[in-house]
User: Which sequence fits this backbone?
């Protein structure tokens, strides 16, 4: 095999290698976008649940206070 043939094979291998990594990087960016949306949604759900816990705790404390005070 001549030097030119070897060079062509090396360039083809480099193109395939680069293409594989390019596709992985593209998929990683897409996955990152989806992950960010999921994280944002989870943060919103967690904040909502914390708010509900605060309200439930406040109502329970008020109920106990009223039961002790007027009971």
Assistant:
């Amino acid at each position: 095999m001549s030097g030119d043939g070897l060079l062509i094979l090396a360039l083809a291998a480099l193109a395939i290698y680069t293409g594989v990594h390019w596709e992985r990087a593209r998929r990683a960016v897409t996955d990152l976008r989806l992950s960010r949306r999921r994280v944002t949604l989870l943060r919103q759900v967690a904040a909502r649940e914390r708010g509900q816990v605060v309200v439930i705790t406040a109502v329970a404390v008020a109920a106990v206070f009223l039961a002790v005070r007027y009971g």
User: Anything to note?
Assistant: The CA atoms of residues 4 and 10 lie 10 Å apart.
